Amino acid sequence: MKLGSYILKRSLLMLLVMFGVLAIVFAIVHVIPADPVGALLGGNAPPDVVERMKEQLGLNKPLFDQFVDYVWGVIHGNLGNSIQSGRQVIQDIAEYFPVTLQLAIASIIISIFLGIFLGIFSAIYRNRWIDHFSRIFSILGVSMPVFWTGLILLLVFYYILGWLPGTGQLSLFVIPPEKITGMILVDSLLDGNWEAFWDGLRHLILPATVLGYAATASIARITRASMLDVLNQDYIRTAKAKGMPKRIVIYRHALKNALIPVITIIGLTFGGLLEGAVLTETVFGLPGLGRYIVNALLVLDYPAIMGGTLFIALVYSLVNLSVDLIYAVIDPRMRV
Amino acid sequence: MKDAILTVKNLKVVFHTYRGTVHALDRINFTVLKNERFGIIGETGCGKSVTSLAIMRLIEQPGEIVEGEIVFDGKDLVKTQESILNTIRGREISMIFQEPLSSLNPVMKVGFQIGESIAKIKNTSIKSCRQEVFEALKAVDLDPTRVSNLYPHELSGGMAQRIMIAMALSSNPKLLIADEPTSALDVTIQAQIMNLLDDLVSKMNNTVILITHDLGVAAQFCDKIMIMYAGTVVEQAKTEELFDNPLHPYTKGLLKAIPKVGNRDKLTGIPGSVPDLVNPPSGCRFHPRCPYAMKICSVEKPPLTEMNPGHLVACHLYGDKNG
Ligand SMILES: Nc1ncnc2c1ncn2[C@@H]1O[C@H](COP(=O)(O)OP(=O)(O)O)[C@@H](O)[C@H]1O
Ligand code: SF4
Ligand SMILES: [Mg+2]
């Protein structure tokens, strides 16, 4: 089937991209004029200790051999050991990533719904108050830095109003659910632990809003522009000439067409989301992958840096692959 | 005399643009009789599409109907509310557009789009209209099983226009408006589509307004022809009468400039160019290009006057008759 070969084509392309990312990440990490052994052992370590450490880490081999070793490892699902924690990087990722994933999913859900609805209403009620509101909201959204919005919201909803909890994933006295997926909300649902679910949800609202704000803004703007464009198309006039009521013209005939460019934007904003996750996790004290990579950077834990970056690139590619698939499902012209 | 199905009185439509107000229709008048095939002819930009969209009440921002009546079947559509208009559109008045490919929704299968029209009229679900969709496709000589599952980008222009026709006629409307239905198609396809349209409306006895800038097509298809120029009606007569005895200087120019068979150029051959409707010429809008222009022509708008029975013309050359 046409769709099947399309998926295959896209997947192969993705493999190629991932290899490129791997090479670039490897090059950057190894070209940085920094000394991970020095960072680990301190500047005054005896030379023989330094040598032994280098050998242990494989740093004494030629760069190309190190690269081949690394690629070989990655193919077998081995990202090396973290210098800092001594554990397999993949284990670390498995521990930290669910937190980031839950945060990202929550914020993408918020931004898709809010963004698309704001966009539709701004287009339908162009130049009316909802449109002006959405415009200002969006400008703020794309221009305010994540940590700033984060701190403001913390100040208002946690410190002043006290409506929502401050940082972390769960309150101190709430019993965490049994760890299954690592995502607190999912696990507490599976566990039937409603107290943890409710508490986790309350903890998630602020960071997810902060992280999703910029994405909401861009989705709203694209939806509006796309909707206005679609509403001017000939086929919309046809639908009206058929006597279709306004509601059907908008939601059946216009929306599906208007969403096509929006879907691309959703895929792209996901990249920004992962980036924003680093700051959001720091502001809200969440033990996610973003914070893991930042910590790794600080101590030059290069297997962790490479592994974490590679993993994020993989997630990003997978998201964009699924976006392309959704594309193909919505837009019949794409299935060629 | 036969009954009128559509009477347009003093219809004035403007568009508010950043360049200023476009005076697209300047108080036009005409009447279409039941079962008539009424042709509207004029150069690009003279207001043909605006006229048809006004009848459908589909003039939208930045456009506006500022004056006049559109009486269809005894109802003034200008004063009719949206919910009632939606029971007239597609059911009593259907429309076919110039660009068939872009007039179909790119993300919906053809069968669904026809079914949607039928379902609305029959007040049932789209799924249950499969049989009718197939019949509608057969009526326009398309293979129902294959075509109903296609998306618009898989169609040729001719197929797409057949589908638009199937959709428009599925309700057997009292009035069918075809706005340049063949202008965007290949010459060979044009004739096929016109023949198909001819067959179908002969069978079903629909009243038709055919908009075209092709005098040849109009001559073959229409009983009566109305000539428009720069947002005004300049002449109207039975087809034969118009071709044998054109009165208005603009009509005469058009007939002299009639393009050779197969030549799809727009109407040409009259010196000068179409006026800008933001600042239309005063009086008779044709006066800057008219070889017979007189003093009064730039001052006073000539009224549409009946010269011979059924033959109307708006020109000061024929002003004597009513003083
Ligand atoms: N949406 C619009 N905005 C501004 N001007 C318009 C619009 N639609 C039509 N017009 C103007 O109205 C006039 C008549 O247009 P139209 O009826 O489309 O011509 P045609 O006879 O070629 O169908 C033109 O001068 C055109 O510029
Ligand atoms: S009214 Fe005057 S300008 Fe207009 S067509 Fe007649 S003669 Fe020409
Ligand atoms: Mg037109």
Account of the 3D structure:
The complex is a heterodimer of chains A (336) and B (323). Chain A is mainly alpha-helical and 336 residues long. Chain A has a domain at 89-287: MetI-like fold, CATH 1.10.3720. Helices cover 76% and strands 0% of the residues of chain A. Chain A has helices at residues 2-31, 36-41, 47-57, 63-75, 89-124, 129-143, 146-160, 184-191, 194-231, 234-241, 246-283, 289-298, 302-330. Chain B is built from 10 helices and 12 strands. In chain B, the strands form 2 sheets. An 8-stranded mixed sheet of chain B has the order 6-7-8-3-9-10-12-11, with helices on both faces. Chain B has a 4-stranded antiparallel sheet with strand order 2-1-4-5, covered by helices on one side. The longest helix of chain B has 18 residues, at 187-204. The radius of gyration of chain B is 20 Å and the shape is globular. The model of chain B is unreliable at 260-265 (pLDDT under 50). Adenosine-5'-diphosphate is lined by residues 15, 17, 22, 24, 42, 44-50, 62-63, 277 of chain B. Iron/sulfur cluster binds next to loops of chain B.
